[in-house]
Design a protein that fits this description.
The complex is a heterodimer of chains A (363) and B (128). Chain A is of the alpha/beta class. Helix content of chain A is 49%, strand content 21%. Chain A contains 10 helices and 12 strands. In chain A, β3, α3 (74-83) and β4 (89-93) form a beta-alpha-beta unit. The two termini of chain A are 17 Å apart. The model of chain A is unreliable at 1-7 (pLDDT under 50). The mean pLDDT of chain B is 89. Chain B is built from 5 helices and 6 strands; from the N terminus they run βαβαβαβαββα. Chain B is α/β, with parallel strands linked by helices and 128 residues long. Helix content of chain B is 39%, strand content 21%. In chain B, β3 (53-57), α3 (65-74) and β4 (83-87) form a beta-alpha-beta unit. Chain B has a 6-stranded mixed beta sheet with strand order 2-1-3-4-6-5, sandwiched between helices. Classes of the chains: A alpha/beta (363), B alpha/beta (128).
Chain lengths: 363, 128
């Protein structure tokens, strides 16, 4: 079975009020390559915003005419950039507005094109460069943020662990003098200790996420890693009525950090269990695709699922839909898969039907 | 009996934490404990007390645990005293995999239970 995600079009949103200019850009992109670009066009800022917010698959690039019926000049760019800061924007300016184009670039646009002065080659090159540049910018911003978070996390960890230490030692001292056979005392003390452990886990999650340790690679059978991960978390859900189906294909050994990847599988399996509200079906499958030389691990549940608008955010730090936890589990898993193993993962989910994680690890 | 009690010096800038450690090590562990909250005075306290073991916080203002340990090593009267470092930065799990050792030093991660603290102290003292 080949699980490779389908090759995607480059989605271009053309925001231009002049119908002939709109058609021109559209034709140029079609002429460049019928199968590369998927375009949509709108004539006002309002329509552009609606289109950007409602489309399930986000646009890869926006070609933005600055002078629209409902917004003019750099305000048009600012409005779009503020709301959709993730999107690369290429500004289209009038023939005598080169300075405006330059100013737009300084205000966050990736590039500019002057009406009537670009050809197919320049248009496609500008689009591809804009997408690449935006990706690099986002990554750079993220790594700067991470460096800051790392320092902050270390300091927070120290500041929180010392008071936690005091609480734990005080509880120990009380336990020493109180009658431990008193049921009420036992419950109260165990509650305090439980909360200390939970807080400690939160601190550890922040630290692990902010300073992702370098992987220690060994050759391993991914099936064994998945089985171990499943066994380690099974105990947590003993009173759940969950059917588990496991299907392990014979796959080649792969160079991975077993501890980190086991953590990733555990995290996903735990999320799956938690989403199922005590009853459901958990399916785990491994396979190998000769086509792209990658191993795939699919973990599906029949749980509550994730709303479409939340899927994209799921691997972002501090995003969570759970009552417990601060939203770092999947963010850390994502970093382990992508940064440490050069892999990828996809989440397919339907509300009330369930979620499937497809993890791809290149050999 | 009192003379046989092992002497522990705690060097930690957090007064509440160090007092709590002192209380538990004395009352539950049966040790004789002295607290020093100012890392700059750690050496003179150690010279005065001649402890059997020093619990040394890693992150302190003025002088951190690493520097205090280096200075202890430079003093012939203090260099043989075993040191256990207390840390709020390293995780217990990371330490557990290496038996509490990191770079040849013994570490305990905060927060720590009194029992683990006592066990670790006794283990290090037994090795001396």
């Amino acid at each position: 079975m080949n699980n490779t995600p389908e090759k995607r079009f480059i989605k271009v949103l053309i925001v231009e009020d002049e119908p002939t200019s709109r058609k021109l850009v559209d034709n140029m992109l079609k002429a460049a390559s019928e199968n590369t670009y998927a375009t949509k066009d709108v004539g006002t800022l309002k329509e552009a915003r609606e289109m950007m917010s409602s489309d399930k698959v986000p646009y890869d690039v926006v070609l933005l005419d600055l002078n629209l019926p409902d917004s003019t000049g750099l305000d048009t760019l600012t409005a779009m950039d503020k709301e959709f800061s993730w999107a690369p924007i290429v500004v289209i300016t009038g023939a005598y507005e080169e300075e405006l184009g330059l100013e737009a670039v300084s205000k966050g646009a990736q590039d500019y094109l002057i009406k009537g002065k670009y050809d197919i080659g320049m248009l496609t090159k500008t689009i591809l460069y804009a997408i690449d540049r935006k990706k690099l910018q986002t990554r750079l911003l993220q790594s700067e943020k991470m460096a800051g978070i790392g320092t902050m996390a270390a300091s927070i960890a120290h500041e929180l662990r010392t008071p936690l230490g005091v609480i734990e030692l005080a509880v120990d001292n009380l336990t020493h003098y109180l009658k431990p056979e008193d049921e009420k005392v036992k419950v109260l003390i165990s509650n305090i200790l439980k909360k200390i452990r939970e807080t400690e886990k939160t601190i550890n999650d922040i630290l692990s996420y902010s300073r992702l340790s370098k992987p220690v690679f060994t050759k391993a059978d991914i099936n064994d890693v998945v089985k171990c991960a499943l066994n380690d978390v099974r105990g947590l859900f003993l009173d759940y009525d969950i059917k588990i189906t496991e299907e392990y294909e014979n796959v080649p050994n792969i160079k991975i950090d077993e501890v980190q990847m086991a953590g990733v599988f555990q995290n996903i399996i735990k999320n799956a269990y938690e989403s199922m509200d005590r009853i459901g079906h958990l399916e785990i499958k491994t396979s190998f695709s000769e086509g792209d030389g990658s191993i795939y691990v699919r973990i599906s549940d029949t749980g509550c699922g994730v709303a479409k608008q939340n899927i994209e955010k799921m691997d972002k730090p501090f995003f969570t839909t759970k009552a417990k936890g601060i939203g770092l589990g999947l963010a850390l898993s994502s970093r382990i898969i992508k940064e440490n193993h050069k892999g990828d993962f996809e989440i397919v989910s339907d509300v009330d039907k369930g979620t499937t994680f497809i993890i791809k690890l290149p050999l | 009996m009192a003379e046989n009690r092992k002497k522990i010096l705690i060097v930690d800038d957090d007064e509440t934490f160090s007092q709590m450690v002192k209380m538990n090590l004395e009352e539950i562990g049966g040790f004789e404990v002295r607290v020093e909250n100012n890392s700059l005075q750690a050496l003179s306290s150690a010279r005065a007390m001649q402890p059997d073991l020093i619990l040394l916080d890693m992150m302190m203002p003025d002088m951190d645990g690493g520097e205090v340990a280096r200075m202890l090593l430079m003093d012939p009267r203090l260099r043989r005293i075993p040191v256990i470092f207390l840390t709020g930065i390293v995780q217990e799990e990371e330490l557990a995999s290496s038996g509490g050792m990191m770079g040849g030093r013994h570490f305990i991660a905060k927060p720590v239970s009194t029992q683990k603290l006592i066990d670790d102290i006794n283990r290090v003292l037994d090795r001396v």
